[in-house]
Design brief:
Chain lengths: ~500, ~500
């Protein structure tokens, strides 16, 4: 059995059975081995950013790693910005990067680069395979590292000769480490803080799914504590029944207003809230300056378990999410972020997965989505645009029975449009909504905030993407995705309703 | 004057007057300053890979750096693979990367990453600005470093607060270091080697333009030495009159055959020739094993000057490139790499610039181009696909009076299609030829070469990009470029002839 086959079999033994790939010559033995290891599902992506982002989306929805197969340093480089997002989302990913054959490395061939140096800033674990015989054991260690907790990108660099050489047998099955409960003293400290009033919970990480949110609702009922969510977490359950948990706002002024008057914040798998950017004359933290923080559960601890213990300690009542009819469609009229958000809220199917890369439209659309049926929101965890479409690919592979809706700004959608092709090829059940304002709108706001007093015509040109206008219906169709345009609230409602009724990929260019 | 303005004025004072950008919040002061420093030309690209590749193309054609403006670590990450190509092409580039404001960095905000760690593998010089007052001086040092010799990517990381703070005045005008002549003993050694017969020159770097090639032709006439060119150099002059200088072949068997029987190779701004990849049971070097090498000029030395001294030492005769009519168009028939190459050779305008990302079609098309009118070929220097269209953007900006022809494989074209938008926006005189074989064809060959004995159906799927077929005419039009399809040699000849007659961007999907 050669090294490539040993690697695939080791991954499979560890339940890693999806390989998102953009391979080259040095990875051809892995590609060849797919026919001998049919349980490994190989998915081709046309750009490495799609592989990395799709693995992130898959991990956010399953809690398990997919594997990514990339070609040498430059192939890895193309995936780095979405690995950055995965790192911030604490997603487990097994990242396999091919390297030149060991005897070839010394010649500094054109594609030679420092692969490990590229990998380190985004990876919690990086290793270059030392010899073929260690393939199985090292691959198992790579999977183990990916799980964390918290999850992380785990990068194994494999010289080509170790994949074509005999390499013994598969490595061991590893047990993912489990999240531990925090010490009881921390539960007591959190209870004491909440009993004082003017307090809030701030949730992140694994605390943002139903179990954690349910306990937070109990605690809220028992103490009156407000509940906030880290807006940059990898995944959060949202919808009308869960709207008591509010996302901390993007701009620091709005965030400060939300958190005003709080004297205590209990942190669950998150750090104290901060501003996304620093601005002249403004602090980076957004909680009141005299606010105290209590860490109930650290990033690697069991946040939902800790919340349950805390709720029990507080003798909090049971809590059930209320059921409510979806909100009504907005009246006829122009398509705006607000009316688009109301259409989505009215029509979003229960259990949908929303990949959120809305940028400047995000506050308006997300406010509306808070009234929708229960759904999972997958936010832009690391701020690096180009995540939305790839994450939607991965979420659709993880949950083929659920509708995925990718809500995508037209600027950010242009970073990894290649994801559309994989959606078409794999017939993924993704509705892509392009928010086409034809501008890097967020930068217009940000420019003034960084102290520039006005936007001159030459500066304006650098945030204008209307010249030429990008035709998303042609772009989607060029990559095999059925694509339509909607320019009014009615037209958008009609197209979106049709899209959620039908399985398979569909793109709607929503002209704002 | 704030730091952003000081930086732009320092660059301008040093003749760096083109800024290829994909900015974000932390770079907004630079964008704002464009209206106060109008001599700096700002060009917006929709992906950082386009910025990096365009700066590379500009540098290859002018020998001077453009500047690139990118947003934080993830923005830089998206540019890395084309910076890798630029590094291998030894192109001077001034790479400005914004960083969070210094007071914000400690909070590990979503976009926080180790920017310098991302930059180091591709940069010859990396510095994070220490304070606003040093902006001018550090920017001058950054320009100086970019020039080398040889040229390199020079990365200056600028925290946002240093761009919005007062920063004194512009930095000094720096003198690019010049390439020195090698010691006369090396010229004598090269002359002695060539006089023994069975010898060749292998040229790279700055020796591949007219002056160096002219001296090589003199030396060839005087000694019978063969002349070879490094196929991964950044730029090489080609065409019928220059066809005595032959590119070393891609596959090692063909390269070995070209170099068979040589007892001595004189190296000019290049290393001994090697195989692109290592393969089982095959050495990485391609010259005969007992071949001796003499380094006439190192990478940082004056190759053309050294060749001239060598030619004079050998009392070589004068040499003029012959003029010849262009070859004839091929007969009617199917469109193949061979017939497509013959059309290009027949119709390529004198002085055209060819951006070469042909991958599996490269050997056939380049063989035909050797018979064409004089042109500059810009090869895939670092092997990282996604370079071809961005490099064409930069070449067109560098040489607006010359026709640029980007010959692009359909697989590799999908890595940075966003370059088409900048071509449309800036009305660049680029004809894009997409070689649409709808397959990662090169991998089919490479898979068997790495020891896989056959390509099974599941492996085949990973190198097939025909399902769904990418419609390049829709893709081009979606990004504003007039696009047509040609499926026969006649149709391609007719479309290509029309494209070279007309100024402005045009895409031809050549269905092979």
């Amino acid at each position: 059995m050669n090294g490539a086959e040993v690697l695939l079999r080791t991954l499979l033994a560890n339940r890693v059975d999806l390989c998102l790939m953009n391979p080259g010559t040095s990875e051809m033995q892995f590609v060849s081995a797919l026919d001998r290891v049919p349980a490994m599902r190989g998915i081709l992506c046309l750009h490495e950013g799609v592989c990395a982002g799709a693995a992130d989306g898959y991990a956010r929805m399953t809690g398990r790693p997919a594997t990514v197969l990339l070609h040498l340093g430059p192939g890895l480089a193309n995936g780095l910005s979405n690995f950055h997002n995965a790192r911030k989302a604490r997603s487990p990913i097994v990242n396999i990067v091919g390297e030149h054959a060991t005897a070839h490395l010394r010649y500094d061939a054109p594609l030679t680069a420092d692969v490990a140096a590229f990998a380190r800033p985004v990876s919690g674990w990086v290793q270059t395979l030392a010899n073929a015989a260690e393939m199985g054991e090292t691959a198992s260690a790579c999977v183990q590292a990916a799980y964390g907790p918290p999850g992380q990108v785990s990068t194994l660099i494999v010289p080509a000769d170790f994949s074509w050489s005999p390499a013994g047998g598969p490595g061991p099955v590893v047990e993912p480490a489990t999240r531990g409960m925090p010490a009881s003293s921390r539960i007591e400290a959190a209870a004491a803080a909440l009993r004082q009033g003017d307090a809030a919970l701030l949730l992140g990480g694994s605390a943002l799914l139903e179990p954690g949110l349910t306990e937070a609702a109990r605690i809220r009922a028992a103490t009156g504590a407000q509940v906030f969510t880290n807006r940059y977490a990898g995944r959060v359950v949202r919808g009308a029944a869960w709207s008591f948990a509010r996302r901390v706002a993007y701009f620091p002024e709005a965030a400060e207003e939300m958190l005003a008057g709080l004297r205590h914040i209990v942190l669950v798998e998150t750090e104290p809230p901060i501003s996304f950017f620093g601005y002249p004359g403004r602090r980076s933290t957004v909680a009141p300056e005299d606010c105290l923080f209590t860490q109930l559960a650290a990033m690697d601890e069991d946040g939902p378990g800790a919340l349950r213990a805390l709720a029990d300690k507080l003798h909090a009542p049971a809590w059930q999410p209320a059921t409510a009819p979806p909100p009504e469609l907005p009246p006829s009229g122009p398509l705006t972020p607000e009316s688009l958000g109301r259409v989505l809220a009215a029509l979003l199917p229960e259990g949908a997965i929303v990949s959120d890369e809305m940028v400047s439209c995000g506050e308006a659309v997300n406010a509306a989505l808070a009234t929708a049926a229960r759904h999972d929101l997958l936010p832009l965890s690391g701020g690096s645009i180009g995540q939305g479409l790839p994450v939607a690919v991965g979420a659709a592979m993880a949950c083929p029975e659920r509708k995925v809706v990718a809500i995508e700004a037209d600027g950010s959608g242009l970073y990894t449009p290649q994801a559309l092709w994989t959606m078409a090829r794999e017939k993924l059940d993704v509705t892509v909504v392009i928010l086409a304002n034809r501008r890097y709108r967020i930068l217009e706001v940000e420019m003034l905030r960084t102290g520039a007093t006005q936007i001159g015509p030459r500066a304006d040109e650098m945030i204008d993407i209307a010249r030429p206008a990008i035709d998303w219906t042609l772009l989607g169709r060029s990559l095999g995705v059925d694509s339509v345009r909607a320019a009014t609230a009615d037209a958008f409602a009609s197209e979106f309703a049709a899209a959620v009724r039908t399985r398979g990929p569909k793109l709607i260019e929503a002209v704002l």
